[in-house]
């Protein structure tokens, strides 16, 4: 099935019910708007993580600011944290401090490692946040809501309508071949439906018919289990409108012994639609009464025609309903050996004609052992090759099909029917308490179950595997399992047909040819469009499909979270670190640790350095920015330590009358706990 046209995609805000009322909020828009949102979120996430790092460094500084005496490495680390550096700066400068103090300080590596690890982890978290912000805007393989002006959801117009079923099957068959037989559903062709495929469990089971009426002794069961219609077919409906569906097919190859008959074609002109050729004979398979054929004859094939065609033909199936509540129009009545309960009997036959096989093949259905010599030309040389013909011109296969339906009741629990014949469940009272939307979905599932059988897809995969001469090549198939493979392929195509059909109820690309059935003639003789019931409007607005390119999906929760978190962190950072900590009432609450944050500030450290050079008269010593009352002209810092010591010697002599030796003695006394003069507090 081709990708959904971008014009059929609903734009704006909608909710993906499967993801919940919060995480499912989605905005679908064009790629230009999506790119702007990505850029905005990238800026906001960077802003948010930057301010969050400021708060984290403030917290680390405050935890360490315990007021106890510490060495110079500790004080330099605190000064580094007070500058609110970036994580990269913390890693580099902490490493530099470790290099400088690795032989002088106590345990410099372990004391530096914590800051480096915290900075590295935060950097990794920042990268993860950036990736998360980009995931908020989804650009590929999107789940979108279909908005089609041609939506019908008119089941009666689309069942058994060749105008729709034929084209739908032409889409479904290649789709099933690509997307059902592989685990790689990321192929572009498979990115159409919300769920790329619907799997059935295949297993061998005992024969469901009379003893000896299953070729090979057993049958094969193809069971889908209960599938959620909303999740499987992409119906964006709340849980209260939930419906589940199960389909089980039990199939077996029917034996030929005693059930074949050869007749003259001239005796059945009505059945074959033409006059039989002289001497033309037909093979009959006798599995039950069918209108137009004698006795219990069910299928007929011309032996003469079989000799001149090499195509394997799957004949149209016959069905028998075991219904007790609804009368079914019967054109086929099976023999007692095929009696069944609580199921539909589907029977079809394969005419093998003159199809040639490359070698002997053992299989209950496709057995081929009859040798035939065929002259062929290879490289301009005529040679005789031996091929194989099917052991029998025609064989039959029968399937019992059962269905189960569940729906969410008013109490929230699932109400389920028994695994049964579909006709027994079409009565109005079969689903008590189901709301109108559920009833509409159930009607659709029952109608398709009634109209489509496992044999509806028609074509067999085995007929497509031929060499350049048209010889059948049943490669990579185990003995006795080819018939199972073919049934699995038919089942896959049937599910794909149902996927296409449900989607087209909304898109109406195939069903526009029958859309005139929605037009009625009013009392004034003017054509009027029929009133669409509310349940059909709901279903028309609930179809989800996949789409790549041209649009983007924005997760509203993710976008809102990034915006709110980034702005909140930025506001807290600015208010706390720039304003609140300098308010007297706030500082009294957090004192004395907050005072150490202020004193480790670059302006306070600068003030203390100038005081060490003899510049006095500072006020506002407990605030973020200290002020000088004398308005001095402050000199540049000396470029060498020696110059600094000379400067200090001059200042010391001019203010105290002492010498450098007495200054060093004062420094020693201070380090031993004897105290120092106020003039030397900044230097020491």
Mind summarizing the main beta sheet?
9 strands, antiparallel
Q: Rg from C-alpha positions?
A: 42 Å
Indicate the overall shape. elongated
Approximate strand percentage: 15-25%
Q: Please count the helical segments.
A: 18
Mean pLDDT: 81
Q: What is the terminal separation in angstroms?
A: 82 Å
Q: Give the strand tally.
A: 27
Helix content: 25-40%
Query: Which class of secondary structure composition applies to the elements?
Result: alpha+beta
Low-confidence stretches: 513-523, 641-684
Keywords: Membrane, Transmembrane, Transmembrane helix
Transmembrane segments: 36-60, 113-137, 556-583
Region (Disordered): 665-684
Question: How would you characterize the overall build of this protein?
Answer:
Among the domains are: 6-142 and 558-578; 601-680, no CATH class. By secondary structure, the protein is α+β, with helices and mostly antiparallel strands. It contains 18 helices and 27 strands. The strands form eight sheets. Strands 5, 6, 7, 8, 13, 14, 16, 20 and 21 form a nine-stranded antiparallel beta sheet that branches.
